[in-house]
Amino acid sequence: QVQLVESGGGLVQAGGSLRLSCAASGRTFDSYTMGWFRQVPGLERDFVAGVSWSGGTADYADSVTGRFTVSRDNAENTVYLQMNGLKPEDTAVYYCAAASQWPVPRKPYGYHYWGQGTQVTVSS
User: Fold this and answer.
1) Are the beta carbons of 33 and 53 closer than 8 angstroms?
2) Among candidates 68, 70, 46, which has minimal Cα distance to 58?
3) Residues 27, 29, 31, CA angle at the centre, nearest 5°?
């Protein structure tokens, strides 16, 4: 069992930055592939980024490549999403999730555990 808690969301102007954190409970955090998704009300939950259990390999949605960076600290049981060059279209609730498979699943059904989400709002 893994419990995930996101933090770091907020309101930021276009072009600004935020760093999201996802703290995980449980002693097997470093065995999970970790992913970040985002969701706008009424729309599907979309893949943003994911990272391997070791942190050595990452995958990104085309819409965030070059602006977002995913990383993890297994000693701290935490995964991060550094978001730079934010755009109004990045506004969404951001979720972290844990999966027991590799490569990084890009669909929500590939993940076993989810956090409660954190709101990111980018103003123009």
Assistant:
1) yes
2) 70
3) 110
